[in-house]
Amino acid sequence: MATEVEVSREDQLKFPYWSPIRRRFDPESSFFAAGNVERELLAKQVALDLTEEEKLQFRNMEDEESSKLYCPLVGCGAHLRSLDEFEDHYTSRHSAACSVCSRVYPTSRLLSIHVSEVHDSFFQAKVARGFAMYECLVEGCGLKLKSYKGRQQHLVDKHKFPTSFEFFKKAHPSKKQRKKDQHKQAFGTKEAASRAMQMEEDTMDNLVSAVSKLSTSDSPSSISFGRRHNRGLTFVPRAVRQAKEPESSARRS
Amino acid sequence: MADEITPRRDPIKSSVGNVAAQRRRQHAITVAKERREAVVRTKRLCRVGVGGGGDDQLTYDDDGDGGDMMIDAEQSILEAQTCSAVQDLKLAMLFQGKGAMQKRVAALREVRRLLSRSEFPPIEAAIKAGAIPLLVQCLSFGSPEEQLLEAAWCMTNIAAGKPEETKELLPALPLLIAHLGEKSSLPVAEQCSWAVGNVAGEGEELRNILLSQGALPSLARMMLRNKGSTVRTAAWALSNLIKGPDPKAATELIRVDGVLEAILQHLKKADEELATEVAWVVVYLSALSHVATSMLVKSDLLQILVERLGMSNSLQLLIPVLRSIGNLVAGDAHVASTVLVIGQSITDSILPALIKCLESEHRVLKKEAAWVLSNIAAGSVEHKKLVYASEAVPLLLRLLVTAPFDIRKEVAYVIGNLCVAPSEGSGRPKLIADHLVFLVSKGCLPGFIDLVRSADVEAAKLGLQFIELVLRGMPSGSGPKLVEKADGIDAMERFQFHENEELRCMATKLVDKYFGVDYGVDDE
User: Fold this and answer.
1) How many contacts (CB atoms, under 8 Å) link A and B?
2) What is the distance in angstroms between the Cα of A45 and the nearest Cα belonging to chain B?
3) Which of A172, A195, B46, B252 fits a 20 to 30 Å CA distance from B208?
4) Model confidence pLDDT, tens digit, residues B24-47
5) Is A71 inside any structural domain?
6) Chain B, window 335-394: residues with a beta carbon less than 8 angstroms from a chain A beta carbon
7) Where are the ARM repeats (chain B) (predicted)?
């Protein structure tokens, strides 16, 4: 067995490449459990009058017993009776799909956070007013941050997420979809307007800075979008919309 | 008044029936649990006398109930009978007059019969009735052979039960061990070794006590004999005695004069039943003791094991033989270079034998054979080439897709090990490109991506590591497309919310490096 050595942060970050090594197991290791059960079954089938059915039961029981398996997605912890069960569990519990952009999230909570942050203009309005709207993704933490980047930093600092983690990732569309998007960008269809609803972080920044440019020196320094009755950014000034064409945030294939 | 409905009282019969049904169900659960214990523990009930002894043809269903599980009533009858049989024994022990010995033996026989009649002997009842001190008395030196035999048989079955029951036999141990000596008659020695084997199978604590009382040399000597059930029982008892986890017993055993030769002789020549038990001794020797492993490796053992592996069709024998080979290959760095030398006949015959196991219908053989192959494939480049060129590869590729999870994981280790050269120093190990290209072309990638999706951390890590090889090593940058086509990106993106940090980092790194913003931009 390799000895524990002080591992530098850099080493920790290195990808653990495949390295062929010999693997050894202790005699009582769970690796050998099935063979041990088989030994006993074969040796005692006469003395204990075991039926074929019983033997099968014992073999399968061994599988389930040794499965101290729990769903590995953050915050789930569901007990899995067997590894085969995981796939079913995943598709039924962890495939919350966004109806607007088809991104998939492992919990309905994360999905709803996504929808608010990306498809809800009201959310953006509150952000622009300085409310802390970006929730921490870890269930139970409860902290809210004022910006996407701030939330990101919190995840890395407090909850040890990798620095490259991106909650809102650019999707990886299929080749067909990518071609479609490239066409769309070239011809600028009407969909661009509805796309404005899909605010990306940089679009947001541009929006804020663009609007601030529109304001006069008399207006209050803090930007407030719409009034109490309005839902906010439903109508985006054309000047702002054309400031930056949203990137191909195409559907996931 | 018409609205009032007086509650009907259930007839008394059915409520009694319910209670009885419930009791039966409860009993069934207990019985199932006890049955499970009886199977899983490494003890063996003695239902037929050793060496063909025992006076009656034992019928397992001598109460004609069709062998159904015993219900409450029958069990308590058995217990009552046991209690009275022990009382009879007590009286017989006190009796001094003519025919005392016959009386004693007859009483012992009755207790023995009750303790070997069913799969669940009334051990607790026997102990409560005070059987053990009487049995210990019956084991005293100079007692007639039949008496020793019956007493030891009773103890064998008492020791086959629960921990607290087995521990009651502590006072008997020195006597049992003493009767293992070379002056004892063979049947007596064998029956005592069976009892000792059951006690050793109980746990580490009792094993240590037996060892401190000198059980090991006596049992070892019994294994030196040529044939007969005595050797077999002694070998089985030894496997229980040395199983550790402390390796000192295993080391002590291999150092006993003549043991190594006896092991080699039995594995080479003996019938499959005996070879099986001896092979299990080798399993524990090779798994626990470095001293034993190096002695075994220097001998002919591996050759003999490989021959058996290739020739036998008995699952019982194949399991410990295969595992012994596995332990030796895994445990000793020199096995590959000194024994499995390329060109030697052993090296030529080990692969077909392992392939035979891969083709077997038995899960255990498939899994452990793949494990052995993975360790061979973790050796030198020559060894990798040997495995790569063999008939194993098409089999492995098939198993990677169709086999149960635990087998697929082992197969993954083989395939991956075939694609990576032995690491030199601290750098990243080099790829063996043509192996990788070939295996990927044969469709092994989906199997690895499947592992990435599993809930098992080790398997997921393996899958990601292999994906990295593909992304890095496939020629002309064809890796990323291949991985994408096999839904690899999708599988990796699952890790965004995975609780294991290492896996998250690994997946993120791969996605960022190979599927970043520029991915697919230059498509035709």
Assistant:
1) 173
2) 9
3) B46
4) 788 778 777 888 888 888 999 898
5) yes
6) 362-364, 367-368, 371, 374-375, 377-379
7) 214-241
pLDDT at A240: 39
Q: What is the mean pLDDT of residues B439-463?
A: 95
Amino acid at B16: V
ipTM > 0.85 for the complex: yes
> 10 Å Cβ neighbour count for B185?
13
CA distance A14 to B506: 9
Residues of B in contact with A185 (CB under 8 A): none
Tens-digit pLDDT profile for residues B308-366: 999 999 999 999 999 999 999 998 877 877 788 888 888 889 999 999 999 999 999 99
Average the pLDDT over A109-124 and give the result.
Answer: 90
A5 within domain boundaries = no
What pTM did the predictor assign? 0.79
Residue A236 has φ and ψ, to the nearest 5°, of: -100, 125
Measure CA B100 to chain center.
Answer: 45
Select from B67, B287, B330 the Cβ nearest to the Cβ of A23: B330
CB within 8 Å: B315 and A86: no
Inter-chain residue contact A48 with B284, CB threshold 8 Å: no
Find the domain containing A132 and state its range.
105-169
The residue among B133, B138, B83 whose CA lies nearest residue B108 is B138
Query: Are A87 and A117 in a shared domain?
Result: no
> Cβ neighbours of residue B334 under 8 Å, at least 6 residues apart?
B297
Q: Which of A27, A58, A86 sits opposite B288 (nearest CB)?
A: A27
Is the pLDDT at A237 greater than 70? The verdict is no
Q: Answer yes or no: do A78 and A58 share one domain.
A: no
C-alpha torsion sign, points B206, B211, B217, B218: negative
Report the number of distinct structural domains present in chain A. Answer: 3
- Alpha-carbon distances, residue B145 vs A43, A59, B101 (angstroms): 28, 41, 11
Does A69 sit within 8 Å of B501, measured CB to CB? no
| Residues 232-251, chain B, touching A (beta carbon < 8 A) | 243-245
A74 and A54 part of one domain? no
Q: Quick check: A44 and B38 CB within 8 A?
A: yes
Cβ separation A40–B504 shorter than 8 A: no
Question: What six digits make up the tokens of B210?
Answer: 């037996």
Q: What is the average pLDDT across A81-104?
A: 80
Q: Which of A169, A195, A219 is the last residue of a domain?
A: A169
The answer on A71 and A55 residing in a single domain is no
Contacts with A, B 408-437, CB within 8 Å: 413, 416-417, 419-423, 428-429
> Which H/E stretch holds residue B273?
helix B272-288
Q: Is residue A185, in this structure, part of any structural domain at all?
A: no
Say yes or no to pLDDT of A190 above 90. Answer: no
Cis peptide before B245 (omega within 30 of 0): yes
Q: Mark whether A40 and A76 lie in a shared domain.
A: no
The CA distance from A207 to the nearest CA of chain B, in Å, is 23
Statement to judge: residues A86 and A109 lie in one domain: no
User: A59 and A71: one domain?
Assistant: no
Mutating which of B497, B503, B506 best tests the A interface, going by the most A Cβ atoms within 10 A?
A: B497
Same domain (yes/no): A84, A119? no
Helical (H) or strand (E) element with A175: helix A175-187
**Residue A175 lies inside a defined structural domain of this protein:** no
As to burial, measured by CB atoms within 10 angstroms (0-12 exposed, 13-18 middle, 19+ buried), residue B4 is: exposed
B430, closest residue in chain A (CA to CA): A19
